[in-house]
Amino acid sequence: MNKLAGQYFDAAIGLLERVRDEEGDAIAAAATAVADTVESGGRLFAFGAGHSSLAAQDVVYRAGGLALMNLLAVPGVVGVDVMPATLGSALERVDGLAAAVLDTSPAKPGDVLVIISLSGRNALPVEMAMNARALGLKVIGVTSVVYATETRSRHASGTFLKDHCDIVLDSKIAIGDAELTAEGVAAPFGPASSVVTNALLQATMAAAAGELAARGFDPPMLRSGNVDGGHEWNGRVFEEYGDRIFYRR
Fold first, then answer.
1. pLDDT at 75 > cutoff 80
2. What does the pLDDT average to over 200-215?
3. C-alpha distances in angstroms, 58 versus 53, 69, 185?
4. Contact between residue 15 and residue 83 where contact means Cβ atoms under 8 Å apart
5. Mind listing the pLDDT tens digit for each residue in 212-223?
6. What would you report as the CA-atom Rg of the chain, rounded to the nearest whole angstrom?
7. What burial class does residue 55 get, using C-beta atoms within 10 Å of its C-beta: 0-12 exposed, 13-18 middle, 19+ buried?
8. Pairing mode of beta strands 69-71, 44-48
9. pTM higher than 0.85 for the full model?
10. Which helix (H) or strand (E) holds 239?
């Protein structure tokens, strides 16, 4: 294997092993919050801006995932399809946007909102967490805690996403999100935040499904539409839980 490719795999595996070993209690707490919400009739939402939105999208309408996870979308910041792509970064720094999104969303007290932001320093994720908790939602933050010790918040309060969450999952990603350096390459490269954040959330969803099953509650999971019977299975789930699923409307 190419030397740098191998080094990237080693770095990613090292980070995955670290979050597995160090974030177990937080993952368990997040899984319990998700399971409690599903069992009690609540809804699940996930939000991320820019590349952080990839992890949010990865747990929504996903084969093998919980059917009740919904994307809390903010126009212009979900992904890099908006033109220019830099607009999404600019919108993350706009005050008041989070409140407007939450006020017009179907989220209600008792629901769970997962907020993903690698740095946790921009106004949008900070205000999203602050406003969500004020509305009575339980907030799970997925972020790299080290940013709060070595960078400045861009929110007027001077706080970070981690300061406004009920549960924090720390991705352990180093500031700058670049695992590799090499001669002839001027900037560090090899971002690993998507790999680790996706794994953290999928581990949480897996633990939540197991906890629901242990309670005797059949978790509403989706199956792949590319296996025989998958569409029929999902159709039954959508019919039973349609009032808590918003990505089909």
1. no
2. 98
3. 8, 10, 31
4. no
5. 999 999 999 999
6. 18
7. buried
8. parallel
9. yes
10. helix 230-241
